[in-house]
Amino acid sequence: MQGKKEDKKTRRRREIVKAAWELFGEKGFDGTTIDDMTDRAGVSHGTFYLYFSSKEDILRYLGEDVQEEMLSGSREIAAMKELSPQERLFRIVKYLLTIHEGQEFRMDLHDVIHRKIHDKLKDDAIELFLPLITSLVEEGVEAGQMNISRPRETATYLVLLVAELEHSVDQWEGEEARKRASEALRELLIRTIGGDEHVFQEDFF
Fold first, then answer.
1. In whole angstroms, what is the distance from residue 191 CA to residue 10 CA?
2. Residues near 203 by Cβ (< 8 Å), separated by ≥ 6?
3. Is 130:155 a contact under the CB 8 Å cutoff?
4. Mean pLDDT of residues grouped by 10 in the chain (205 residues)?
5. Angle at Cα 156 formed by Cα 135 and Cα 107, nearest 5°?
6. In the chain, which residues fall in CATH 1.10.357.10?
7. pTM (2 decimals)?
8. Number of other residues whose CB lies within 10 A of the CB of residue 27
9. What is the CATH code for 1-52?
10. Which of 74, 103, 145, 182 has its Cα between 20 and 30 A from that of 87?
11. Distance of alpha carbon 130 from alpha carbon 63, whole angstroms
């Protein structure tokens, strides 16, 4: 009986979240009201408030969902042991910077999430990604492929850097500007980790 109640609660929450996703895509975050979401999901205001305290609360939920997706993809890359630690690290950076490329709605929503709950997501990003990035950096140091004396602290800076860059890539307009920015990022990363400049020649974005 308890399991059925949990299933119903999970289903209700998903229905509300699905409605929010659709409406944010159609009307934007600011243009969507709680009335819109309850009407689309077919639930009462009372039911809505059983799961979420506000529209911003749903945004936090969606932000966590996006971060979990990004973490899952990053873990898959980190598990590619046939690649060097530096290449896996750089591929993770590229993945995180381009995951929503070409998906205009998801990019717009990501920007809204960033503006509205930036500090919370930044703290979450450190907690979620720091163990993974620290492990890669330590592996690179042990293999003699990275020259770093403080792996955990360096990994923290890398996580924070990528978290900020996620929302800044679009400022470089035009292919040439993006290429120059990508090359600058590669140079910065190589110097930060003491890595090999010949590893990973792809553009980051």
1. 47
2. 94, 178, 179, 182
3. yes
4. 64 91 85 95 95 90 85 97 97 90 60 65 84 97 95 94 80 86 94 92 89
5. 100
6. 55-205
7. 0.82
8. 12
9. 1.10.10.60
10. 103
11. 18
